[in-house]
Amino acid sequence: MPESGPPGPSIPGQRSLPSGAAPEVPTPAVPGLPITAAAFGLEAVLHPTTAPPPPVTGTPPATPAEPVFQRVLGGPTGLGTNSLSLAGSSTGTAPSPPVAVAESAAPPLPEAAPEAVPESASGVERVLGGPTGLGTASLSLARTAHRPPPESVPAPPAPAPPAEGQAVPGLYHHPIPEPDPLRVEEVSRRIKRWAEDEVQLYPEEWEGQFDGFSVGRYMVGCHPDAPTVDHLMIATRLMVAENAVDDCYCEDHGGSPVGLGGRLLLAHTALDPLHTTPEYAPAWLESLGSDPPRRAYRSAMDYFTAMASPSQVDRYRHDMARLHLGYLAEAAWAETDHVPEVWEYLAMRQFNNFRPCPTITDTIGGYELPADLHARPEMQRVIALAGNATTIVNDLYSYTKELAGPGRHLNLPVVIAEREKLSERDAYLKAVEVHNDLMHAFEAAAAELAAACPLPPVVRFLKGVATWVDGNHDWHRTNTFRYSLPAFW
Amino acid sequence: MPESGPPGPSIPGQRSLPSGAAPEVPTPAVPGLPITAAAFGLEAVLHPTTAPPPPVTGTPPATPAEPVFQRVLGGPTGLGTNSLSLAGSSTGTAPSPPVAVAESAAPPLPEAAPEAVPESASGVERVLGGPTGLGTASLSLARTAHRPPPESVPAPPAPAPPAEGQAVPGLYHHPIPEPDPLRVEEVSRRIKRWAEDEVQLYPEEWEGQFDGFSVGRYMVGCHPDAPTVDHLMIATRLMVAENAVDDCYCEDHGGSPVGLGGRLLLAHTALDPLHTTPEYAPAWLESLGSDPPRRAYRSAMDYFTAMASPSQVDRYRHDMARLHLGYLAEAAWAETDHVPEVWEYLAMRQFNNFRPCPTITDTIGGYELPADLHARPEMQRVIALAGNATTIVNDLYSYTKELAGPGRHLNLPVVIAEREKLSERDAYLKAVEVHNDLMHAFEAAAAELAAACPLPPVVRFLKGVATWVDGNHDWHRTNTFRYSLPAFW
């Protein structure tokens, strides 16, 4: 199945920008009251500040020991309002003045300099009147990084050139600043120690592949607002564990569609535990340590559960159940040699999807999107569209790799070519347009929701998802060892 | 796979008790403040009342038009506290004086008369000091039905003998009163009209099987606290739709494990909609009407979504993703002719499970268990244990039917016999003990949670789950046409 987080080489010799990334949550005039202009960052645009952001400290979720009724009946002092205080603490991290943002339909450039706003301005830009909206979170963060630091901070090195690797021509996306190299180095060091010492993830001969995954760069780029490296490690362990299950159960490293349903369900119990009798519980518990994928799921989930609220954990479990359903649909089609209709493939890819990664952005950011807001249909639509756009990015960048692999590997260009009788080139270019349509729909839906519900946790979550989408694209773009674009231009 | 809601004959000629079933939510001394004794019904036991319950009117969930921040920041006046007012409105529906409750290890009797408290008193009884706790919801409801009505209400007919059908000897369970015959008749009439006129669920020749399912009796027995028949219809449509998907995709009516992953995922999009581009959305939408299972899922979900809160809908979607993962694990084992270890089978059955049915008890009851309380690990454990116990009930009652079917059909006695080298009889009797252990664990965990968090919506939800477990057992017990017990006693 399409690889949802493939190994790739780390990019050597990168010089990077200082990390100034911090959440850009507007400050309500009266804390706790809804805000409008501020929610869109317009207030900050009108009054830009050069003050550095104070450190963001995420409030940990309540422990089970805390009386439940206090959390439920206590009004807006509970978990769901963490981000109010976070918003208040990030006053200085205002978005920068408007600059051009998108690269839609532009030829690939060696550097990610701002370019002309395309004809097809994103929904966010249409609604928010400029590139200060949700869809441009990553660029705002980039500009934040360019901001002159205060006296007390050592002068940053000159801005580094972006990592090598070209974007798919015509792909609508937003460039991001180089991920903070200090955080990348620390996350990379810690995740390797976790993989080798805590979960024995791979045999020695796979070490190079693990390093090439460069998951540290990936996660630092997707979560620039993480208050600490510990927060980044939550996302990094889960990403590694998800890829271990995909590789070892489904794909490259011994995976197979045959019997996959049984293997995935047993692995899923590392996320959604079995509750059974004392006679049978020990064998189940022992099974969680019986192979690398389950050891990785269990350990990553234990760390996540310790930092997230129960509702955030339940959200993640649901997204992982969706992912496993998607794996199993794809496996069923592989077993029966069925080439789905394009809409069927897109439906499968809404489940076999990056969704579990962006939807933990609030946990990694140290705040919580309240469960009742996450569940609203408008938010569910935004999340689904973001996940779909970013998953098609994977199809486009891994296209030539998957063509070179054994057998027919379904991805959007392949399915379009077969079902709509298009040439490989025309099918690929149509897949790019499908991606762009999904991105514009995502940004428009996010802007509409922010306008309808300008609560700080909602606006910050929407921005966090948009930032994850941008970081994921950049990670694919820069994996030049693993990915090469087809010669269609 | 084990049939999770099989057709069965309706029981003719039943005389029934008047419906007195109403939620037994204690009244807080000070509304909005936590309560303890009242939460356990002890207060009511000390001061039993014979006043009839006022009609329970469920507060509909907020519409999307309601400003989100009001719901989130408004403190304990939102959806999550509906049940506080419901609690206040059900003052009269106090539990009855203590009577014996369980039938554990008792020989089957033709009538469900109260019997001696068994040695193995349930966790609830241990914690609550008598049969007034959660696990005895159904009996309390039974006693409520026996209560002499006030002058203004016509005298009820004499108590009817219980429906035919004997319980599995030694099975720990709680009897229930005969479901309200007027509600059963109305639900049965409406569900047939829905199946035939709205979703064209079955060809004419299957009408007898549909009638034999007696889903009206099933759902009225499981949801005695539903404020209206409209609420009961929500549960009834979903139950019928779940069985249509199982029968037509997985089992008896054209189902197969081959390619099941693709079929189930596309059906799942009727519950968890696809968000894609204008070019491909219409074909997906059209697919939802393309076969009976998808028509049933879509229509039942539309009705449910109109009555439930977004968080309740998200909870149901998650439980249905679990169910579909369970189907796919069982299908994978069937395809590879794998007989799982007993613990593996129990893990699969925690997913291929009745869970989606009891967890909508609050929607059907017209209130909401707040999402943050539903997500707590203690509540997740209670729900999982209840679902596991009630699912093993299905294995036990369908044992001889599945033995008679073609091929080997996995169920708990069969797996125990093969994996633990026991005789069919000893394996069946061990499966009964596994069920009883799960029931006792469920009741103990529910009592602990009620003691730790005696909020009316929590206590009512826990009682609603217990009532569903009892109603599900009674439905299996009374399906004498479909089920027959093995000759092991």
TrEMBL record, chains A, B:
Q: From what superkingdom does this record's organism come? A: Bacteria
Could you tell me which Gene3D superfamilies the record lists for this protein? Farnesyl Diphosphate Synthase (1.10.600.10)
Q: Which CDD domains match?
A: Terpene_cyclase_nonplant_C1
Provide the organism lineage as a comma list. Answer: Bacteria, Bacillati, Actinomycetota, Actinomycetes, Kitasatosporales
One of this protein's GO BP terms? terpene metabolic process
Q: Which cofactor does it need?
A: Mg(2+)
Which InterPro entries does the record cross-reference, listed alphabetically? Answer: Isoprenoid_synthase_dom_sf, MIB_synthase, Terpene_cyclase-like_2
Q: Which UniProt keywords apply?
A: Lyase, Magnesium, Metal-binding
Protein name listed in UniProt = Terpene synthase
The molecular function GO annotations come to: metal ion binding; terpene synthase activity
Q: Where is the composition biased (Low complexity)?
A: 99-116
Indicate yes or no for the key word Nucleotide-binding: no
Q: Which residue stretches does the UniProt record annotate as biased composition, category Polar residues?
A: 79-93
Record-listed E.C. numbers = 4.2.3.-
Pro residues bias spans: 1-10, 50-64, 150-162
Tell me where the transmembrane regions lie: none
Similarity comment: family membership: Belongs to the terpene synthase family. 2-methylisoborneol synthase subfamily.
Tell me the enzyme class. Answer: lyase
Region of interest called Disordered, as start-end residue ranges on this chain: 1-32, 48-116, 144-164
What's its catalytic activity? (E)-2-methylgeranyl diphosphate + H2O = 2-methylisoborneol + diphosphate
